[in-house]
């Protein structure tokens, strides 16, 4: 019997936090909106909740955790 080919599994914690766009950019939502919102002003809350691009230094590590995302 031939050995099965080893495959990388998707890191589910990374898959829940990041999204790969059609152009291959990795996007995420800002942290800090879940609770203690009354002490944060509206402008800050809008800025926190916006979609952001992952920094280039972290991009390779996240892409390795998402082997089946089409880049």
From TrEMBL:
Q: Would you say which domain of life the source belongs to?
A: Bacteria
Which terms are listed as keywords in the entry? Ribonucleoprotein, Ribosomal protein
Q: Name one GO cellular component term.
A: large ribosomal subunit
UniProt GO MF annotations:
structural constituent of ribosome
Gene3D superfamilies xrefs: 4.10.410.60
The question of whether Ribosomal protein is a record keyword is answered with yes
Instruction: Give the UniProt record's GO annotations in the biological process aspect.
Output: translation
InterPro entries named in the record: Ribosomal_bL35, Ribosomal_bL35-like, Ribosomal_bL35_CS, Ribosomal_bL35_sf
Q: Which family does it belong to?
A: Belongs to the bacterial ribosomal protein bL35 family.
Q: Quote the protein name from its UniProt record.
A: Large ribosomal subunit protein bL35
């Amino acid at each position: 019997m031939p050995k099965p080919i080893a495959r990388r599994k998707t890191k589910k914690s990374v898959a829940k936090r990041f999204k790969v766009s059609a152009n291959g950019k990795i996007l995420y939502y800002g942290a800090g909106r879940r609770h203690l919102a009354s002490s944060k002003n509206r402008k800050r809350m809008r800025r926190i909740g916006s979609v952001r691009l992952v920094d280039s230094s972290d991009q390779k590590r996240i892409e390795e955790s998402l082997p089946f995302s089409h880049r």
